[in-house]
């Protein structure tokens, strides 16, 4: 369900019941296939009860009080600020990569350099911070001794050497007192910078788990701070605030609400905490939108992919279809020469052509090949009732037609109902909304011809 909502909220510019069913069916099939593979991997083939790859452990006794709601809202604001900072730094870094790191060997060198820096700083942190805990209180599956004495393990090394999923689970479920302030603070700072650098590398690194782990680190820090300030309060649980921090950090980065709430509920197995998660995600989105866009929207713009937003650009009522359309319209007659059709298909990059009744005869073309002399009746193949708009139609009207009907092309006609232009998704995607510090405007982008 989380995957279906994610596709709806972020990946689709057109939605209908048929598409919902296809995505849901694909999600169910992929979950079944994953269960078959996991059951075979664990030595129990056919036992289709595994929770999947994204499982952060179930919160058995998690509750919240009315007086905690302002804390959740404040954590959502912090997540929005951290997410907007993440997006800004990553945007600058991605632009630098697109300009200067274009050769293959440079991309490999960059990935190796980032890995080496991460390993160096991680080892420096593990060696320099003394965060040893007794083994009998070890909440991790594979404790690491490092420089600790016999019978102790290093809590810092456990966070670094575990898989990121296991580290998230530790921050969610470790008992109070399992981590030090300085350990989590430095880990949060290093992992935040590391996740900024890795997203956009030529090596697939992902975004969800690094953002969740970063948010869980500062969220648990917030819970530990509350425990120190309110030592006698039974409602303060560091793991609970780690979950809220993870949601706020991820929501402030990707700017999604509904799908992230469902995904985190599915990954933690607790539906009673949906309201706090939704509050923090909404605040993170509102706060982050003041400064910049979500990370996916930023990379879509950088990649010049023509994906339409949910709403038409504001302040665009004075932009008309005649300004948006492509004037170089190639039309076909209702009965056309095969040779002319082949020449048009070879000469034009697009694949949508208005078919019109000719008002004047086309100039005679001297064709020697027998096939080029054949004619084809286009009427059985064409859409005889296409959607059209007047050249004076506004950009919001054209945008809503594309968004609601899932169009690929829209013919523009003049007052005499003659074809004067054609609008495609690329033409609409050029008009992009920018937001910064509470201000907004409309700008025109360059859309790639390969999109």
TrEMBL record:
Cited PROSITE patterns: CBS (PS51371)
UniProt keyword terms in alphabetical order: CBS domain, Chloride, Ion transport, Membrane, Repeat, Transmembrane, Transmembrane helix, Transport
Electron transport among keywords: no
Family recorded in the similarity comment: Belongs to the chloride channel (TC 2.A.49) family.
Gene3D superfamilies on file: CBS-domain, Clc chloride channel
Keyword Cytoplasm carried by entry: no
Lineage: Eukaryota, Metazoa, Ecdysozoa, Arthropoda, Hexapoda
PANTHER family per record: CHLORIDE CHANNEL PROTEIN CLC FAMILY MEMBER, H(+)_CL(-) EXCHANGE TRANSPORTER 7
Native source species: Timema tahoe
SUPFAM superfamilies assigned: CBS-domain pair, Clc chloride channel
Domain CBS, first and last residues per copy: 382-440
Membrane-spanning residues: 23-41, 69-87, 108-129, 181-201, 208-230, 258-282
Compartments, record wording: Membrane
Descriptive protein name: Chloride channel protein
GO cellular component labels: lysosomal membrane
Membrane topology type: Multi-pass membrane protein
